[in-house]
Structures are given as C-alpha cells and as structure tokens.
Design brief:
409 residues; 2 domains; Porin; mainly beta
C-alpha cells in the first residue's frame, strides 16, 4: 500500500472562518462575555468500509486473501457555536478489521499498530479544537485538527485522515489576502508509505508524536487580487531537521486551467532539492481534460507531503503509487480527464515517471480509471489501477472499493 507542513485547514478552513470578522462589541449590562443566542449543536459522522486487492507478487491473485487489504471505520463529530465568536469542535474515530483477516484480507488500509498490534481495534480523538474570531480581521484555530497546505497537510485518500495538534492564526486585513502562521506540535501521519495514519495501537491518543522531538512551523500568504487567480507562498521549518518552501500560481482563462509550482527542500545535508511543475487543462460543463509535467533535482527529491513523506500535491502525482514523482531525478508527466454522467462520475489518468536511478529503479507507468456514484445513502468509489514500476517493470493490477455512509444526528 502507499500514500497520497501544514495549512490549507489553515488556508481553507481559516479562510472560511475569517471572512468578514468584526471586533466583538462589549456588553454593557455585565463585564463578562455573553453567550450567543442558543444555537443547536451539529452532530455528524461517516461510516466507511474500504477493500483493496492486487496481484503483485507470485503468491497474490486478485480477490485472494493474500493480496487483499481492508478496514472498517466510523467517526462522530460535534460542533457548536458557544459564544458569538467562539466555536468548539470535537470528534472521535474508531477503526477495526471486524475479523476480515480470518478469511478475506491479509493487511489493513491504516497502520493500527506495530508488530502484534497490527490488527488491534483503535479508538482515538481525531478532533478537539476551538475556533475564535478575534478583532482586526484575525482568526485562530487551536487544538487537534486537519491541516491543508500544499507541502504539509492531512491526506484524505485512505480510510482515516491524519491530524495535527496545532495552533493556527490568520489575518485578512490586506485586500484579497490571507496571511497564516502555524505552530504544529504533533501529528499522526504515517511515514512508511503504508497508509495515511499510524495509530501506534494507542487508544485516545491515536499515535500523535512530535517531529523528531521538535515542533513544526509554517507561514503562508494567499492572494486572490487577480480575477480567477490564486497565488500562494509558504515557508516551513522543523528545527535541526529541515526547512522548505512552496510557491504556486493557478488561474482560469476562458475555461483553460493553467498552473505553475515550485518547491524547495533542505534537510541540512550536503545537498538541497527542488521541483517545478506546470499544468494546463480545459473544461466545459460535465467534462474536463488536463496535462502536467514536473522535474525534480538530480540529488534530492522534493514535493512530497512533509508530514508523511508519501503523497504530494504536485500536478503530476499518480492516483495510487505515491513517492515516484517527488523522488530525486524524476521526470514526470500526467494526462487525464473526467466526465460527469449525472448518475456517476468517471475519471482516467495516465502517469509516467522516468527516473535517473540505476537500473530504472524509480520508474513508473500507472493507468488509473475511477468511478464515483451515489447508491442510496452510500457514496461509492471504485478504482482500477494497472501499474508497472521499479527495475523489473512487471505489471500488476489493483482494484479498490471504497464505501462511505455519511450521517447526522
């Protein structure tokens, strides 16, 4: 299995939280903060059943136990505006194989725990934060949360999403601009490219750890002054471990989607790495097509999620096989398209990575076809992936079935 420093819950949640924020007027009657008019709590969640199978390796066949992996997951989220400018969010999640390993699968989507704990059921707090609107167009989100910045983020491709213990502050005083700063103390992203989270068999805690004994810092600016255009720049740092930067610009001109990316990575070693990427696409109504190209530095890779080391936000990223386009000396391109039939959405992408590593060890060819449909209350996603990778470039098939049932109380 594989994988898809912080902040578009920085950028995205924070932008949403920070729209027109005005200073809170003082209450004349009493020198205390007055709770806003009673507002009903929002309680919601999602139940998931994910199954995957592949025939890579002599012992594996499609839909055989040896080549299959699966998990069952459910969460429950609580959100309530407790004061005029304060919202509290809390959530709990649980994951289990439900005994699938006895007959159906041999491994899991998420890392439940090490060694003998690999199949343990785990229940953990996946969200616990407070969002506060402050004076002078300033907002903050403090506590356990998802983050969504280009270079450090929560990955949503798997059955469970990695989260962070963080404090994020943003300001929207400048025209069409959001400024963000974040301190991140811990995260539970998997760094072995074997799942989006590593729960370490820790109930309640959910495997959250520091970044090599240090916190992470992130600073960003997002500007939308130009019509249909978003420009953003980010700087990330974990003391004594690495520093990194990300620049990106995206625009839409008469239906054409154009974009450019540049990422830099310095792990304080003898060499630094960088990557640049460009994309172009066109869409109308129900369909769109796109193409992208990227190139990494010869010595050190760049672009992969700094919180996990697997998936990347590069335009050329593969659908299922992560870590190739962001590796050192990788020349990559991707082409694809999507069509919405109404009852179902169909997508297809081809990704090619030509790596300068000896014996073509980092090469990849991936063909992916996906479909998404709503089956009653269930959101169903099905994917077929054919990939050739590594020195031997032997082909293998993968089938993924992902069922999501959202609910509210």
């Amino acid at each position: 299995m594989k994988k898809t420093l912080l902040l578009s819950v920085v950028a995205s949640t924070m932008i949403m939280a920070g729209g027109d924020i005005a200073p809170v007027e003082p209450v004349v009657e009493a020198p205390v903060v007055v709770v806003a008019p009673a507002e009903a709590a929002k309680i919601s969640g999602t139940a998931k059943l994910y199954y995957g199978t592949n025939d890579r390796g002599a012992a594996n066949d499609l839909f055989s136990k040896s080549g299959a992996f699966g998990d069952v997951y459910a969460d429950l989220k609580y959100s309530r505006k407790v004061m005029e400018n304060v919202t509290v969010n809390a959530g709990i999640a649980g994951i289990s194989t439900l005994g699938l390993e006895t007959d159906v699968v041999s491994s899991t989507w998420a890392i439940h725990g090490p060694g003998a704990s690999a199949l343990d059921d785990v229940v953990w707090i996946n969200e616990a934060n407070v969002v506060i609107d402050l004076p002078y167009n300033t907002f903050t989100k403090i506590g356990r949360q998802e983050l969504d910045t280009p270079y450090f983020y929560s990955e949503n491709w798997s059955i469970a999403t990695n989260t962070f213990d963080a404090a994020v502050v943003g300001n929207t005083s400048l025209p069409d601009t959001t400024l963000v700063a974040a301190w991140v103390g811990r995260g539970n992203g998997a760094t072995s490219n074997a799942g989006s989270v590593d729960l370490q068999a820790e109930n309640f805690q959910g495997g959250h750890t520091s970044f090599g004994g240090n916190p992470a810092y992130a600073f960003g600016a997002i500007n939308k002054s130009l019509d249909n255009t978003t420009l953003q720049g980010w700087y990330y740092k974990v003391p004594s471990t690495f520093q990194a930067a990300w620049l990106q610009g995206d625009t839409n001109i008469a239906g054409f989607d154009l974009g450019a990316q540049y990422a830099y990575y310095d792990n304080y070693g003898p060499n630094t790495g960088d990557v640049w990427a460009v994309k172009a696409g066109y869409g109308m109504d129900e369909w769109n097509i796109y193409g992208a190209y990227s190139q990494t530095d010869d010595n050190v890779g760049a672009g992969a999620n700094l919180a996990t080391g697997g998936q990347s936000r590069l335009y050329t990223e593969a659908y299922w096989n992560y870590g190739f386009v962001s590796a050192a000396d990788a020349t990559s391109f991707a082409i694809g398209g999507n069509y919405d039939f109404g009852i179902a959405k169909i997508g297809a992408q081809y990704t090619n990575v030509d790596n300068g590593a000896p014996a073509n060890a980092g090469d990849l060819e991936e063909y992916a076809v996906t479909t998404s449909a709503k089956l009653g209350p269930v959101n169903a996603d099905l994917a077929y992936v054919y990939a050739k990778k590594g020195a031997a470039m032997n082909g293998a098939n993968t089938v993924l079935i992902m069922l999501n049932l959202p609910y509210s109380l």
